[in-house]
Amino acid sequence: MTQKHSGSCLCGAVTFKIDGEFDKFFLCHCSRCRKFSGTAHASNLFSFKGKVDWLSGKENVKFYDVPDTRFMKAFCAECGSPLPREREEAVVVPAGCLDTPVDIAPNAHIFFADRANWDEHLEEAETFDQRPG
Predict the structure, then answer these.
(1) How many domains does the chain have?
(2) Could you tell me which residues are beta bridge partners of residue 92?
(3) What is the distance between the alpha carbons of residues 55 and 122, in angstroms, rounded to a whole number?
């Protein structure tokens, strides 16, 4: 049975569903993914046979292609949230934009040698269930 996942942007202007299984889940540490996500790594799910169905707000979906590369970002024009993008070989879904749970764990950290200098021993940092006072 084909899995269906749904997701949205932060402001709710864009909603979508993904029809298809997720085949790979990569945590990418390349400098472009760090800039794209504003974090230590991008968390992207790949579906080689999947399809994106924009349920609302398709007119708010904007794309940015980095010149002379294969790197593309899809995002909401209202709130800037990352959104799925369809490439020739796969649908790439930022895991954080999904509203449904996924049943696949990350397969690998990729471009790990390019990780930020502060992206080490993060498990040793103090943890809080809420924002500390």
Answers:
(1) 1
(2) 46, 85
(3) 37
**pTM for this entry:** 0.90
Helix (H) or strand (E) segment spanning residue 47 = strand 42-47
Position 104: which residue type?
Answer: I
Question: Using alpha carbons only, what angle is made at residue 38 by residues 114 and 70, rounded to the nearest 5 degrees?
Answer: 60
Residue spans of alpha helices (H) in the chain: 31-37
| Cβ-based neighbour number of residue 131 at 10 Å | 5
Res 78 pLDDT > 70 = yes
- CATH value at residue 107: 2.170.150.70
Q: Which residues contact 32 (CB under 8 A, 6 or more apart)?
A: 66, 69, 71
